[in-house]
Amino acid sequence: MVTSMINLNRPPIAGFGVQKCVNTPFDLVIASEDSRRVNANAVIEINRVWSAIASQLDIGGQHRVGYITITPNNVITNFDLTTHTTDSAIVTAFTAVPEQSNANGNARIAQGLDAIRTQLDNNQRQNAARYGLVLSATLANNNALRTASQANADITMFAIGIGDIFSNLDRAISTIVRYPPVDKYRRALMMVSFNQFRDNVVENATLRLFCPGDIGGRCGRDTVCDKAANTICVQQTCKCNQRLQNVNGVCVTGPVINQPCNLGECSVFNSECVLGVCACIEGFTARGTFICDSTTDEIDISKGDRIGEYEDITIGVLAAVFPFLITGINLVNPSTLAAVARR
After folding, report:
1. For position 264, what pLDDT does the model report?
2. Is the pLDDT of residue 317 over 90?
3. Which residues contact 32 (CB under 8 A, 6 or more apart)?
4. Based on the domain organization, do 262 and 185 belong to the same domain?
5. Are residues 65 and 185 in the same domain?
6. Whole-number average pLDDT of the chain
7. Which of 26, 40, 76, 314 is deepest in the core (most CB within 10 A)?
8. Residue 304 lies in a domain
9. Which residues, listed in sequence order, are joined to residue 245 by a DSSP beta bridge?
């Protein structure tokens, strides 16, 4: 069984309610494994992560999200793309999904891919991107999975594996994202434990591919921040210019250090609203009211994120965790986050 020493009395995940990708319409169907490998506490943490991601989207507007559970015996639709039309409703829905299986054996991941396609096909929207996201701890990488993956070639698939790299699970995760080939190396993540999943997945370079060029989306190299005015590329993420804040996908004037604030309003880079006042996040120190300086050495992430540039390169390490994105969380296993893709 894949287990984690998870502290269920943790504070809310940083980023709740701060909307991103508002200028990029898409539909997302998430499919999570629930089996003997995934204990009840892990299910709670997984659902909290999904709810944190959904809370940052424009549910009922530009974005729709559906949720599927994949077990060794069946595939369960918890809710589909049209069920929930507000952020609060979908957050509540995610956190209400219980553990649904304690069965041994491999989860039906291939059938889960089929269910993702069915939801997206039955609820198509014009000009909306089609995304699927699979969380798996199943070791099976078989013909059924390869066939289902190829059938989803018109859906941009993301996959997260909880387990060892260089394993059958690792290869299965790579199979899920094989089609379409664009950015396939960046759309696969491997994590060693559910603690690492919970602590690292909400803000990472993989999920920022949901809306490249938009606020909260990926940028750099051949991608510029062009979906919203007054934005800038900071550490490969599109953000509002200094002294501006993101309000429903528009960058407007916001409070600075030591000024009163509400969640998500602070406009200085590397700051957040703490007890109603804008302050620098952990690892940064205020220099005046407009600057938060790092108290640690800068890390060059551009090289760490360079994976899969050549077809014969099979391994890449994705520097995906930034201290200003997730705060107040203790890593049980501080292993480096690895993004691994094959073929």
Report:
1. 75
2. no
3. 38, 43, 46, 50, 67, 68, 69, 70, 134, 135
4. no
5. yes
6. 80
7. 26
8. no
9. 252
Is the Cβ–Cβ distance between 192 and 164 less than 8 Å? yes
Average pLDDT over residues 260-274: 84
Amino acid at 312: D
Q: Domain for residue 35, yes or no?
A: yes
**319 domain-assigned:** no
Three-state secondary structure call for residue 28: strand
Which helix (H) or strand (E) covers residue 93, if one does?
helix 87-96
In a domain, 18, yes or no: no
Bin 243: left if φ > 0, else alpha if -120 < ψ < 50, else beta. left
Both tokens assigned to 23: 């200028």
Residues 187 and 238 occupy one common structural domain: no
Least confident residue range of 12-26, 134-148, 224-238: 12-26
Residue 175's closest CA among 206, 205, 143, 197?
A: 143
Are 79 and 142 part of one and the same domain? yes
AA letter at 145? L
User: What is the domain extent for residue 61?
Assistant: 26-210
Could you give the angle at which helices 40-55 and 87-96 cross, rounded to 10 degrees?
170
Which residues are registered as beta bridge partners of 278?
273
Encoded tokens for 313: 């390169």
Q: Are residues 55 and 149 in the same domain?
A: yes
Domains contained in the chain, number: 2
Q: Same structural domain for residues 35 and 104?
A: yes
The pair phi, psi for residue 300, each rounded to 5°, is: -80, 100
Token pair belonging to 55: 């809370």
